[in-house]
Amino acid sequence: MGTMSKPLTASTAAKTGTSKGPSPAVMGTYGRQNIVFAKGEGAWLETEAGERYLDFGSGIAVNALGHAHPRLVAALTEQAGKLWHTSNLYRVAGQEKLAERLVAATFADKVFFCNSGAEACEGAIKAARRFHYVAGRPERTRIVTCTGAFHGRTLATLAAAGNPKYLEGFGPEAPGFDHVPYGDLDALRAAVGPETAAVMVEPVQGEGGVQVGSSDYLKGLRALCDEAGILLVLDEVQTGVGRSGKLFSHEWAGITPDIMAVAKGIGGGFPLGAVLATEAAAAGLTPGTHGSTFGGNPLATAVGEAVLDVVLEPGFLEGVQQKALRLRQGLARLKDQFPDLVVEVRGQGLLAGIKIDAAPADVVAAALGERLLVVGAGDSVVRIIPPLIVADHEISEGIERLSRALAHVSKSKT
Q1: In what order do the strands lie in the sheet containing 342-348?
Q2: Which of 160, 209, 270, 405 is within CB 3.0–4.6 Å of 366 for a Cys-Cys bond?
């Protein structure tokens, strides 16, 4: 049954939030900061009033190359004038090129494209289960995951993480997941049984409080999976595409997974996700078993290629490692400056976190007052996630602004 649209008057403009304040037309699924950005450049965002904010959140680790990177803008603009979408009923030239480059740069032999991290994790789960099914082991459907994890907002990925806060009110929990403490190899080994298909972990738990898995832990996971004849699935949605200082975080441990979920940074701000897998692990995903209408469309893959062009340039990842060291040193100074507030500094590459003796939301709000954007996380942690192209002087500026924010929080506690 149709309805007539209502004219936009001065009163309805205020009501719908077009003049100021959030619009009630948008579902209230986020506790949004009451600020709107009009444009961005590099590590900076700007409001319509011209107020500039230093972005150390990067759209939650999405804007790997910052805002309006000229090579990404050029790639998107050029492709937009040619072709946007045909669906996966036909070959997509850009998709094939990007897949070939990812295969050349990683452990993978096969790539499936989607649009988000949740879809990538969902695809990885399906690939792992299907692998055993076609191998004549249909009973192997269970996946061991870790407490504190975050794999997305679909019903399956929520169940994979097992966080009661996110599961509440959505009906029966999707079955097939066994949860163990992060970093505990003995608990993981005990959870593996005859119905286990895979182990699925994040090399660094981002949402879970920037918990970094040690090299020994990741090597132990690889050995355990090999011993049990199951697959190792890594969720590198937040840590991938240079964020750790290497192309993917697992490279620091000298291991490779069987399946990997990727998103966020790979599109540099354009929705793009991918499931990377070995030839063997991808064997079950035959025509008709999985799909995505928009996944790997010409626009997304053009931007994805441009991201790889930059990240894979000689010296780029080494530069990220140097910036990460500078950031870590600055955060260590803040710990010395605020010993009663900053409990611990964590991180890998340009995914850093400070565990604080306060509500993360208080620090996020105080930082916003200093025109610095940071992101909260679990375990009383504030994440600092600057773009990979951040300059040294911008890191110094960010540390100074965060220092003022922490001083404000510290003062309010006393």
Answers
A1: 342-348, 351-356, 381-384, 375-377
A2: 405
CA distance 312 to 304: 12
Instruction: Give the SS3 label for residue 319.
Output: helix
Could you tell me the domains of the chain?
34-63+315-413 (3.90.1150.10), 71-311 (3.40.640.10)
Side chain identity at residue 198, one-letter code: A
Coil/strand/helix, residue 15 = helix
The reply to whether 107 belongs to the active site is: no
Whether 150 is catalytic: yes
Distance CA 118, CA 160 (A): 11
Chain centre to alpha carbon of residue 363 = 21
Choice among 110, 126, 246, 264 that is catalytic: 264
Q: Among residues 112, 150, 177, 338, which one is catalytic?
A: 150
Q: Which residues pair with 205 in a beta bridge?
A: 211
Percent with pLDDT over 90 in the chain = 88
Annotation says 264 is catalytic = yes
Please give the model's pTM, rounded to 2 decimal places: 0.92
What are the helix and strand counts (H, E) for the chain? 13, 17
∠ CA 189-275-210, nearest 5°, is 60
CA 228 to CA 125: how far, in whole Å? 18
Are the C-beta atoms of 141 and 129 separated by less than 8 Å?
yes
d(CA 330, CA 28): 36
Q: Which of 55, 178, 235, 362 is catalytic?
A: 235
